[in-house]
Amino acid sequence: MAVREQALEVPAELGEWISDLDVATVEDRAPGHPVVDEPDHATRLVLRVAPGRGGELVVVGPRTRASYHVSQPGLWCARATLRPGRAARLLGCPAGQLVDRILPLGVFRPPVSPAESFAHLLTHALPTATTPRETLLRDAVTLLSTGTEGVAGVARRLGVSERHLRTVFADDVGLSPKHFARIERLRTVLADSPRRPLAELAATLGFSDQSHLSGEFRRFMGVSPAAFRRGELPPATGCSARSVTVAPAGDPVRR
């Protein structure tokens, strides 16, 4: 399988809430080759449409481990990436309840036509005012993403305690500040040229050495960097456009 992605311009009025918009289409140019869902600290609203089966609107929470699957050719997804902290406010539940889950939007809002609901959220349902807590989170995300300061240093620069910063991240992002920074660094490794020497990458990105980088990569991706570059991936699972993970009994999503 191959995935063709097309980036779309985020309307200016949605820029405070949405960082990226794109459309991904699964093409059958490489049969049997799995689609890789990389670890990601973001939450997304995704409209998924499969040929002959209609569509569904789902919330895809932060992903703490890579997954590998074979998707149906012709499946396409419109994806809106929410900025850190926005998902909890939009959906009315702590972001920690979204981690490693895919949930129908109907869990949080009355079910309507998927296309209508997606369009409505992008044009009408997003609150406009920014709170001081959201400003704090935005600044912390910016500092942590540079990789030059640890959690303690970021907290000091922002004038808050480490405990408060961890609470904000747990409730509004779903991850600890340290976990957020680790995933951000891993995504930088994945985005870098596959021909760049791992030792050079490790030094540039602040790993203690190449072994440290390789260990982190294996923990998140399930294989070593060298194996990943060679295309030696873990076994892929099936993926259906209507396959979602609902909240298990006894663990409801609080509104």
UniProtKB/TrEMBL annotation:
<keyword id="KW-0238">DNA-binding</keyword>
<feature type="domain" description="HTH araC/xylS-type">
    <location>
        <begin position="151"/>
        <end position="231"/>
    </location>
</feature>
<dbReference type="InterPro" id="IPR009057">
    <property type="entry name" value="Homeodomain-like_sf"/>
</dbReference>
<keyword id="KW-0804">Transcription</keyword>
<dbReference type="InterPro" id="IPR018060">
    <property type="entry name" value="HTH_AraC"/>
</dbReference>
<dbReference type="InterPro" id="IPR050204">
    <property type="entry name" value="AraC_XylS_family_regulators"/>
</dbReference>
<dbReference type="Pfam" id="PF12833">
    <property type="entry name" value="HTH_18"/>
</dbReference>
<dbReference type="GO" id="GO:0043565">
    <property type="term" value="F:sequence-specific DNA binding"/>
</dbReference>
<dbReference type="InterPro" id="IPR018062">
    <property type="entry name" value="HTH_AraC-typ_CS"/>
</dbReference>
<dbReference type="GO" id="GO:0003700">
    <property type="term" value="F:DNA-binding transcription factor activity"/>
</dbReference>
<protein>
    <recommendedName>
        <fullName>HTH araC/xylS-type domain-containing protein</fullName>
    </recommendedName>
</protein>
<keyword id="KW-0805">Transcription regulation</keyword>
